[in-house]
Specification:
Blueprint: E1 13-17, E2 23-24, E3 27-28, H1 32-41, E4 46-50, H2 57-66, E5 76-78, H3 79-90, E6 95-98, E7 119-122, H4 131-142, E8 146-149, E9 155-156, E10 163-164, H5 166-177, E11 182-183, H6 189-197, E12 207-211, H7 214-223, E13 227-231, E14 249-251
Helix pairs in contact: 4-5
């Protein structure tokens, strides 16, 4: 089960990645529903931590419930929500939110200005990652606008096919404008702190992060002071085990994670 054996540690909380752990390519993994139901019955708080920018907390929770996974809005942390929370701490005068779909709902309280914003905030624009908009962003950033990128991931295949992700465009614009962006999503510390602050558990080493990616889930959780469990599903590859970042537990699937909560 794991590289390192523990004598049945008592975890007080769980953070789970969504795409790759609970579901993948739109299909719910066997054991995911049972695990969350068991955690709820045992009074163990959990959070779903997703690098999705297209989803708001509300829309993400709603779609999960339609798939039979009982999750509520306050139990979900998306990259769009975490970015909005970070932006609020900056009290921006204006911002251009480059994002599509329900994730935009998280930014409804801000003053939006695509012509002369104080901040350019980059999420998943889908088809709007085009010549016109990318050049517009380049000129704004070169002219002094500050840059926030919701996630650092360069590629993604959680939707079924390999595609460029937000981080690819973010890094390109950073280099082109010769500036540094602030990145929010996993593995960056801020998104983990957002999740932890909603759980009300003081002992971080009593919280475990369950993920399928060493580079985002496991690395980010370890840097945040959490215990970690890697599942060999989703975007996991056997070569990942050659990483110097070693998870506390390794499971074949989410169904086995329940062993930590006898």
């Amino acid at each position: 089960m794991s590289r390192t054996r523990f004598n049945k540690p008592e975890f007080k909380g769980v953070i789970l990645d969504l795409h790759g752990v609970l579901m993948f390519h739109g299909k719910v993994y066997t054991g995911a529903v049972e695990l969350l139901n068991s955690l709820r019955q045992k009074g163990i708080p959990f959070r779903i931590l997703s690098n999705s920018t297209l989803e708001s907390r509300k829309s993400c929770a709603g779609k999960l419930r339609k798939k039979g996974i009982t999750v509520y809005e306050d139990e979900v942390i998306t990259a769009s929500f975490a970015t909005a929370q970070y932006l609020k701490t900056l009290h921006p005068g204006s911002c251009w939110i480059m994002l599509k779909r329900e994730g935009l709902d998280e930014f409804r309280d801000f003053h939006h200005d695509s012509k002369n914003p104080e901040y350019v905030v980059l999420g998943d624009c889908r088809e709007d990652f085009n010549f016109q908009n990318l050049n517009k962003a380049l000129r704004l950033l070169s002219g002094g606008a500050k840059f926030i990128v919701m996630i650092p991931e360069i590629v993604d295949n959680s939707m079924g096919e390999l595609e460029l992700n937000v981080g690819a465009y973010g890094k390109m614009l950073e280099e082109a404008a010769n500036i540094k962006a602030t990145y929010i999503g996993k593995p960056n510390r801020y998104v983990f702190d957002i999740a932890l602050n909603t759980m009300g558990i003081a002992e971080k080493n009593k919280i475990i992060m369950v993920g399928d990616r060493i580079s985002t889930d496991i690395l980010g959780a370890r840097n945040a002071g959490l215990k970690t469990a890697l599942v060999k599903t989703g975007e996991f590859r056997e070569s990942d085990l050659e990483s110097p970042v070693i998870p506390d537990y390794i499971f074949n699937s989410v169904r086995e994670v329940g062993e930590l909560f006898p």
